[in-house]
Amino acid sequence: MSPRFATIALSAAEAADGVLPLGPLRAGASQGGGWLAGSGTIRVELPSRQSEVEGEGGEKTAERTLEATLSGAGPLFGESAQSPALAAWYADAGLSDGGAVLLRRTGHASARLSPTAARFRFIDLFAGIGGFRLGFEAAGGECVFSSEIDADACDTYEANFGDRPHGDITQISAADVPEHDLILGGFPCQAFSIIGKRRGFEDTRGTLFFDVARLIKHHRPAAAVLENVKQFRTHDGGRTCATVVRTLEELGYTVHVTVLNALNYGVAQRRERTFIIALRSDLDGANEFQWPAPYPERADLAEILEPDDAVAPKLWGTEYIRAKRLARLAEQGKEPLRPSIWHENKGGHIGQHPYSCALRANASHSYLLVNGERRPTGRELLRLQGFPDEYRIAVSHRALRKQCGNSVAVPVIAELAAAVTRVAL
User: Domains in the chain, please, with CATH?
Assistant: First the structure.
């Protein structure tokens, strides 16, 4: 399985001719591998700032599409890549020598292209294993600072990015953080100690969001992209989220908040998370931000799963666990489905779906069972979060389970990176 998106560098000559070379997401990835390999036709959406029209329900849709045949001889689109429509899209997107395009798979036979802004700098707070970093690097960004306190997560991050995150952000002065254009982070949502007093910035003291806010206040980046659990919007009757939004507004930012489900953006996992986009209010595009549209197709679980004979024996459920799950499924009057991932809720109900329920950092070992029989492998867990196959596993399986449960879904972040950079940079 190959990355779900890739950064594509264009030379002036290639842009002029309308030729689209497909490059790897990161160094070492196989060019044209996986779903980009071989001959075949994929449908490419050509979004254009100048070509959007109102569709049914008022949503924005792209007027133009291009049918492009993938060349089996190398990572190039075939003859239809010389299309005037594609060349016109390059011009609309303002692409020039050294520009980049973001390619993301949206289905079995479709992909989405987005122009990216000029290279930009970002900082990666509460960095985990780098899900935010992967998404924003794919949009042309350079990470100039990262922070993480979990040692195992730092080991994984260093193994994949070559630099080790700084430690506790609460102990780092804002002046010691490099200048940057974007600030990123999934800040932990511990209880806000004095929330609801309507004191804005002061209400966030004692929380890790306060450290995000003090960096924003000091550096004045163009935008902040923040993530939290779905329930963040309704925590404490909505007062927690309201305090965060009010604080960002008082710092001079226009704030957009919604819940996105990773299942709609190319991963086989139902994972709903709150996202907060804060755009500096003096920017022309501060009020023009649009949330990324869901993909037309869902990811295929069969592409995620490894062969059973390649799975370590320790990951197989005991006969007792497997028999218990089968018995409860029978009590529900259901037959086993394959491929599927089974989830048992607190009431004992067995759900089996062609996708995973949300990965959790502290879930039981048998929280999710592939086909009701075994636990997901480390590679499968990473794939369920949209990490490319060249991403290195550098820690124990137990540590990786926790890391994947805490991570963001990379394709969702890639979509947000394209949407944010389009209006902020």
Answer: 5-115 (no CATH), 120-298+408-424 (3.40.50.150), 307-376 (no CATH)
